[in-house]
């Protein structure tokens, strides 16, 4: 049996993204069936004639040749039940496919809990449908499995969801304590956002000198990854977050609330865009990303980072950015075009980040020369941006810092018998 052969069903000719999603799980699409309809068929998503056509194709392929039917859309429980019953195959809609990718990619406790919560939320209406069908004497279907009676399974879902939400709340509280500590220690928080596979993790690796996994597949990042930016100015912590994708239900986004919170609470958000795609695709993905930032509650400065300029000519890059500006998608936003691969304009990006940091204070200190002062200066280099230092019988030092740490600097200066000048 070929576990990875699948049939694709769509109401639209543009099936590039769903094929990418299927490929991420290792499925090979052997046949695509498109029925051009504005709205799905009430009973079976596509009309009965198209269902018969699909069924005939499956039978012609021979038993066990195809293992999945993938629907490029969100199907209702009754449609799912009808399709599985008629086609005798597991049917995955777009949301179930994405959740399966999430499950495969989740590698930390929080991500696993978030994915499981989303899966249970997804399964609830389907299990209700199974209960309804089972009581009507029909075959209960494939999803619930044989371990539980469907009604027991439904109760188990509710209990599991309550427990997972409690566990996630504890993790969220711990994350908030860590975040508060970082801010009060003088760190600025910068978060990466963007459509899945735009190059966020690659940019993180470049800026922090790290080795976060990058594999070119969709949703390579589910857990947040936070690292210190390796430059000599302000101490900045950079966080990578889960990628956006169109038409995700609110309850899926809500399951990842504690992760996406990093965006809402960041001092600056870098919205990464793959500029090498067509203008129309970039527009759609940028709209989705901007809408998600609004939904999450981001009010801080947003820098739109157009990545992968190494794949285009200068004119092509300018043409795409001008197109987006004409659509007013870049209003009130700083923009920069870079190449992570060729390290092009990364210095300019760092300058733009520094210029966008809020709540900055500038201090000029005069300090006595002694061992304790040298220790304090080493601490300043870690916690702030030292712009100038001179020695002339005493030490004069100019510092830019996060307002959160200003009082601590002044206090330490006073303890050393230093002065503010």
Structure, explained:
The protein is of the alpha/beta class. The chain has four domains: about 5-105, Rossmann fold (3-Layer(aba) Sandwich), CATH 3.40.50; about 105-165, no CATH class; about 185-355, 3-Layer(aba) Sandwich (Rossmann fold), CATH 3.40.50; about 360-420, Alpha-Beta Plaits, CATH 3.30.70. It is built from 14 helices and 14 strands. The strands form three sheets. A six-stranded mixed β-sheet has the order 6-7-5-8-9-10. Helix 1 packs parallel to helix 4, helix 4 (about 95-105) runs antiparallel to helix 5 (about 110-135) and helix 5 packs antiparallel against helix 6 (about 150-185). The termini are far apart.
Q: Which outline best applies? A: elongated
Q: What is the CATH C level class of the largest domain, in words?
A: Alpha Beta
User: Which fold name is given in CATH as the topology of the largest domain?
Assistant: Rossmann fold
> What portion of residues belong to β-strands?
15-25%
Task: Please state the second-level CATH architecture of the largest domain.
Answer: 3-Layer(aba) Sandwich
Total tally of structural domains: 4
């Amino acid at each position: 049996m070929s576990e990875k052969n699948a049939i694709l069903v769509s109401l639209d000719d543009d099936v590039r993204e769903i094929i990418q999603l299927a490929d991420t799980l290792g499925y090979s699409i052997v046949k695509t069936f498109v029925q051009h309809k504005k709205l799905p068929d009430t009973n079976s998503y596509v009309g009965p004639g198209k269902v018969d056509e699909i069924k005939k194709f499956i039978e012609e392929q021979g038993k066990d040749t195809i293992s999945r039917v993938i629907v490029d859309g969100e199907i209702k429980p009754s449609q799912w039940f009808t399709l599985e019953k008629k086609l005798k195959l597991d049917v995955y809609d777009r949301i179930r496919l994405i959740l399966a990718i999430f499950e495969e990619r989740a590698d930390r406790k929080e991500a696993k809990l978030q994915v499981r919560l989303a899966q249970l939320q997804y399964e609830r209406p389907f299990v209700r449908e199974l209960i309804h069908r089972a009581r009507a004497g029909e075959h209960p279907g494939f999803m619930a499995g044989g371990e539980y009676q469907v009604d027991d399974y439904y109760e188990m879902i509710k209990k599991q969801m309550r427990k997972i939400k409690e566990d996630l709340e504890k993790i969220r509280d711990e994350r908030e304590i860590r975040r508060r500590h970082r801010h009060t220690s003088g760190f600025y928080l910068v978060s990466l956002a963007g459509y899945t596979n735009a190059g966020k993790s690659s940019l993180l690796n470049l800026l922090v000198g790290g080795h976060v996994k990058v594999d070119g597949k969709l949703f390579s990042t589910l857990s947040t990854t936070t690292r210190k930016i390796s430059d000599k100015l302000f101490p900045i912590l950079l966080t990578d977050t889960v990628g956006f994708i169109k038409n995700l239900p609110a309850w899926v986004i809500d399951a990842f609330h504690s992760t996406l919170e990093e965006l809402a609470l960041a001092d600056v958000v870098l919205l990464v865009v793959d500029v090498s795609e067509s203008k129309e695709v970039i527009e759609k993905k940028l709209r989705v990303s901007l809408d998600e930032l609004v939904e999450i509650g981001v009010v801080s400065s947003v820098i739109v980072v157009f990545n992968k300029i190494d794949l285009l000519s200068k004119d092509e890059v300018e043409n795409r950015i001008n197109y987006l500006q004409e659509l007013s998608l870049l209003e009130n936003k700083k923009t920069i075009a870079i190449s992570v691969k060729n390290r092009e304009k990364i210095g300019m990006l760092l300058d733009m980040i520094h210029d966008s940091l809020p709540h900055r204070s500038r201090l000029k200190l005069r300090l006595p020369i002694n061992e304790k002062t040298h220790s304090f200066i080493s601490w300043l280099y870690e916690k702030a941006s030292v712009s100038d230092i001179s020695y002339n019988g005493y030490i004069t030092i100019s510092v830019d810092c996060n307002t959160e740490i200003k009082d601590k600097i002044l206090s330490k200066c006073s303890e050393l018998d230093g002065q503010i000048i």
